[in-house]
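# nightly structure sweep
# worker-07 picked up a monomer target from the shared queue
# config: single-sequence mode, recycle default, output format = structure tokens
# input follows
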Amino acid sequence: MRHFVEELEQLKVKMLEMSSLVENAINRSVTAVTEKDENAAQEVLRDEARINQIEIEIDDFAINLLALQQPMAADLRLIVSTLKMNTDLERMGDLAVNIAKRALTLIREPAVKPMVDIAQMAALAQSMVRKA
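# output follows
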């Protein structure tokens, strides 16, 4: 039983790592657009592989827990919720990459209007990731 609890804790740690990477990717991609920061965009592109790698690790880890430990009640809900959040976080990371790529194409173009709305939307998205 102690081994199972340790594995659940490892799963939580992986989810926190992924959440942190995605939150940072969202922040940097918006910074890339609003401040025309090429370095921020490049960092998002560089971290994409790590986010994708962690998604696979979490999926494998959670599926192994389900198959080998046969969790009950709260533990089962935690693992299933983790699988669902994992997919959503990875998609958020992909969207941050799309924003960063677009930022790289817009860096040399003059701004049409201030990017105030984008920063507010990003702050809301970051808040939701943190709460999850």
